[in-house]
Write a structure and sequence with these properties.
Order of helices and strands: HHHH
Largest sheet: none
Distance between the termini: 8 Å
Number of helices: 4
Shape: elongated
Structural class: mainly alpha
Length: 138
Amino acid sequence: MANGQMRSAVSLLLVLNFCMYAILLGIGGWAMNRAINHGFIIGPGFNKPTHFSPIQFPMGNEATGFFVTFTLITGVVGIASLLAGLDHYRSWDATSRPAAVSSALIAWALTVLAMGTMEAFTIILSATQLVYVAALYG
């Protein structure tokens, strides 16, 4: 692909992935807020439940808390990698490419790790992030 076509593909993927990571952060933040508001109340007059976990969520199963935490970390790292990608897009030279590619690969790996919460959405996001990494290389 020519340099101009690759640059336009990267810009499209930057905008698309930013929107998807923002949605991921919104849903993960909502789930964390719901867990905090509807979690266990522990105080001087209350007993600790038998199966207490600090990451206990009122919805889902025992793994939901971990996946929501991974999702929030993924969203923040993904948006940070897109900022590095935006810096590379502005300069578009070999000096900014390693930072953009390495942060995009880390964000992609974390996106694959967080695939347990919003499965279909996260699978689509991991695919577009992988295409974004390939476009940065190309």
